[in-house]
Amino acid sequence: MFKKFSVKEDVTGHTQVKSSVQRAIRAKILEQYKEGIEGIIDDVMPKKTPLILMRCHEHINLIVMNNEVLFFNHFDGPYFPTLRLLHKYPNMLPRLQVDRGAIKFVMAGANIMCPGLTSKGARMDVSVPADSVVAITAEGKHEILAVGTTKMSTDDIKRINKNIGVETAHYLNDCLWKTVVDI
Amino acid sequence: MADSPDAPSSEHVQPREITYCGFCSLPPEYCEFGPTLEKCKQWLSKHDKVTYAILYNTLEDHLAAATLGEDKPEEDKKKAKEAAKIEKQMQKKMQSKVLIKRIERTKRKCVTSVFGLENFDVDLKKAAKLFANKFACGSSVTKNNQGNDEIVVQGDVSDEIFDLILEHWPIVPEDNIDLIEDKKKGK
Ligand SMILES: [Zn+2]
């Protein structure tokens, strides 16, 4: 999603949203992440702080507060937390671990293939259905490497063990990672 | 950083503080996958000796071990290439000029145009706003004949802008700023 992206070229406009819209976004994020975010939502998105919605090309929206991109989504799909936010609150999402060999591919923008999630260095301690937003960690690393959506359930990833397991949405060193918002 | 975070709970969770690499902006443990490992190591060894020791004393062996059997030289070459590319970009940046031009409109009135700031990743709109505030005068971003953006400030403020640029964007080297006077006729 953010292999190529720059604020100057891809952002079509930004608006401070009405409080009703802000409440709706907040409700959707709460609904989506439930216990992962309940305790921290007031810290992450204080009710009184103005929320900026940046609309970008290809129907990508960025949710910005205090010049920090917190979430992004595509059309009206699920909200993904950005990696900088995830690094602050790593428990927001279920985590899957890829093996060391997969790191450089993920950081080049590749999707995560099942074998990268089932090999010796990989770990799947949680079980989630298909189409879940997950955080990707890596063998031997502490910080989260990427965020994406599962293309099949974790059980199927183990069972089928081929094709794409997780579609990468945002990864370390992609253009969103490098984006500095200054409104 | 070392201990794995607790299971999700609805209790109040403090945000973790993370120090990112000052050179490539990644979490330091991922610098090895970036193109600028050497520079990153230099930065980390200066700024966070503890993390440096943790990461690279063990990592070095790891890398060495990996180098033994695999096709590492190829990879090294690639990295070196990329590092050189980044270096080149930096150099190009350092060579690009900022022009401050005084343009006469009438005998007594003139405007000052600033050109080339965007090469130093300066937000032109922000800069224009800043100039407008500082000098209490009109200031805007316009496209010039070549289709490049420039900032036009009403009034003769070239010297002030010169100082302001140095103060506000230390990344711009003083030698790269040129002052030009574009007079229609001598006074
Ligand atoms: Zn680095």
UniProtKB/TrEMBL annotation, chain A:
Record's GO cellular component terms: cytoplasm
Source species, domain of life: Eukaryota
GO biological process: formation of translation preinitiation complex
One MF annotation (Gene Ontology) recorded for this entry: RNA binding
Domain PUA: from-to ranges: 94-173
A Pfam family per the record: PUA
InterPro entries registered for this protein in UniProt: MCT-1/Tma20, Pre-PUA, PUA, PUA-like_sf, Uncharacterised_CHP00451
Alphabetic keyword roster: Cytoplasm
Similarity annotation: Belongs to the TMA20 family.
Protein name as catalogued: Translation machinery-associated protein 20
Organism of this sequence: Entomortierella parvispora
TrEMBL record, chain B:
Keywords associated with the record: Cytoplasm, Ribonucleoprotein, Ribosomal protein
Listed PROSITE patterns: SUI1
InterPro entries reported for this sequence: DENR/SUI1_TIF (IPR050318), DENR_C (IPR046447), DENR_eukaryotes (IPR005873), DENR_N (IPR048517), SUI1 (IPR001950), SUI1_dom_sf (IPR036877)
BP GO annotations: formation of translation preinitiation complex; translation reinitiation
Subcellular location: Cytoplasm
Principal location class: cytoplasm
SUI1 domain boundaries: 98-169
Molecular function in Gene Ontology: mRNA binding; translation initiation factor activity
Gene Ontology cellular component list: cytoplasm; ribonucleoprotein complex; ribosome
Domain writeup: The SUI1 domain may be involved in RNA binding.
Family that this chain belongs to: Belongs to the DENR family.
Quaternary context: Interacts with the 40S ribosomal subunit.
Protein name in the entry: Translation machinery-associated protein 22
Species annotation: Entomortierella parvispora
